[in-house]
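Following up on my earlier thread - several people asked me to post the actual chain instead of describing it. Fair enough. Here it is, all 114 residues.
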Amino acid sequence: MPNRGKPLQSNTLVQNIMSQNVCNELQHRACREQWQQWCKATTYRQAKQLLRQANLSFTKYALWLSIADLRIVTGLLTGHADLNRHLTLMQIRTDTVCPLCQEDEETVLHLLGE
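Reply from S.P.:
Thanks for posting it. Predicted structure:
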């Protein structure tokens, strides 16, 4: 006699476990694919110097930042920050030198202590 109206608890447990395994496997595949693309890419110079590799925990952290803070982090990772090097490339400034030390170009890496 079929069990009408109530799923068996063991079936529900098995489905939940299978569902979780599928989710985990999909996440691992996505991470592997992202890592392969990151390694192959010849772009992202600035981000690669700062992050070294794709980082899920940093991504989760960044998603909780305010818009203003996320803008700053994005600028630092891409090199599109309000620093003399970038402003000179945009032809807003004429000098790339760091105003604090007067020795090197004011870049993100210089600002963070290279």
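The helical segments are 9-40, 45-51, 56-63, 67-78, 84-89, 108-111. That should answer part of your original question.
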